[in-house]
Amino acid sequence: MDAKLLEKYAKVITEVGLNLQEGQRLFIAAEMNTAPLVREVTAKAYQNGCPLVTVLWSDEKLKQIRHEFAPCDSFEEYATWIADGILENAKRGDAYLSITGLDPDLLAGYDPELIALELKTQAKHLKKAKQIISGNGVQWTVVCPPTPKWAGKIFPEISEEKAEEKLWDVMEKLCRLNYDDPVAVWRKHLSDLGKRHTYLTEKQFETLHFRGPGTDLKIGMPKNHLWKGGGGKTLGGVDFSANLPTEEVFSMPHREKVDGVVRSTKPLNYYGNLIENFSITFEKGRVVDFSAEKGEATLAKMIEADEGAKMLGEVALVPHHSPISESGLIFYNTLFDENAACHLALGSAYRSCVKGGTEMSENELAEAGVNDSLIHVDFMIGSGDIDVDGINADGSISPIMRSGEWAFTV
Ligand code: ZN
Ligand code: ZN
How far away, in angstroms, is 75 Cα from ligand 1 center? Predict the structure, then answer.
């Protein structure tokens, strides 16, 4: 890929995504096939005075080899020093960058039960570290640069090599790298999203009502819920952006106040397995029924991961006309597909989405309606056909979205 493009991407990641502070160390978890970007980010970090960049490499081929050959009863094995190290770094305040590059079909055909167990084991060990990181104790960012297998999946009609080049061209627009000063463009975009979430937080809707083809869902919101999006802030007040690109504003449903049915509008790639055209029915917050045209077994495993996996942890609004949506592509990758459409997540909620949530005890969190789970899986429900209303405490209705676009001005 173009060296200049890679440099701009790395600049946006370090200056907008992570917003590395003076003297702050950086921890990077990365796939081996993203090495050129990892090196560029590392260079930028050191140039900006970062005292230490540490990289934990993973390799998608090794993941596959485990599922091919490892004993079936070995998927609760985990190298605990990895979790200890990530926790130690997070406690010290190191920024956290995840650079993923998985082949969307990596584990297609392997046992969904073992895939789920592997993920659950990993999540269990990483829970403490993730609480600090996703609780915004430090700046954290997830990015996903083009890789050959992934690009090949999006553009199956051309060679993987050509597909990767083409995906870089697409990425340039999606990540707003096609500007002279992408850092300034990003700051403006994040500030616009900030105005949207400020409006929604001030409104304190009691319920959100989603309507569209196959969807009629009411989502009760917790008292004192907070909408987030665009730039986040760490507990220490440092601006950052958890996802690049990001187009969403999001909050948390009350885990026991979700009723109705919702239909997916894009395929969900769950750790190398695709779940397509699925519907989920909720009663008092819990999944009571579901079906999928493809990948139903995977969906079942996901929902059975634990108690919290049967409830929602996120509700997010994305206008239908975002650059990602306008590309018209299906990315088979949550980071991009979730930013193309309104979405929900089964599993844990971000504690920072309720006032005082990061200081609450487990009991207080449950009381406040905050969902907890080892999983957090986004699935897309938005399209140009979706309408969203906010229902106020007095029963009056304020339109939030019409035909997939914002219905209020800020
Ligand atoms: Zn989201
Ligand atoms: Zn999410």
Answer: 29
